[in-house]
Amino acid sequence: MLNALRGARRIAVLTGAGISAESGIPTFRDAQTGLWAKYRPEELATPEAFERNPRLVWEWYEWRRALVCGAHPNPGHVALARMQDCVAEFTLATQNVDGLHARAGSRSVVELHGNILRSKCFAEGTLFESWPPSESVPPRCPDCGAWLRPDVVWFGEMLPQGALESAAGAADRCDVYFSIGTSALVQPAAQLPIAALDAGATVIEINRDPTPLTSLASFSLRGAAGDILPRLLEAAWPAPG
Ligand code: OAD
Question: 135 vs 201, which has greater pLDDT?
Answer without folding.
Answer: 201
